[in-house]
Amino acid sequence: MNIKQVLDAKGLACPMPIVKAKKAINQLESGDVLEIHATDKGAKNDLAAWSKSGGHEVLEFKEENNVLKFWIKKG
């Protein structure tokens, strides 16, 4: 996986993880991967829905030590 940027959204409540993810992914090229770390439990559904609506793809999701980790490929 070619990760171009890591976004630390830990400690941020909705909608800030989405706002920060949108800003970060806009700086990437199509096909680049954005890794996001969040602690807001709502981010799981929010980031999945946001990715789909924006034409991006969630490549992987996992939870480690109460941190939600997402790998999103820019569409």
TrEMBL record:
Domain UPF0033: 7-31
GO molecular function: transferase activity
Keyword Transferase: yes
Biological classification of the source: Bacteria, Bacillati, Bacillota, Bacilli, Bacillales
Family in the record: Belongs to the sulfur carrier protein TusA family.
Organism: Cytobacillus horneckiae
Keyword Transferase among UniProt keywords: yes
UniProt keyword terms in alphabetical order: Transferase
Name of the protein described by the UniProt record: Sulfurtransferase TusA family protein
InterPro entries per record: TusA-like (IPR001455), TusA-like_sf (IPR036868)
SUPFAM superfamilies registered for this protein in UniProt: SirA-like
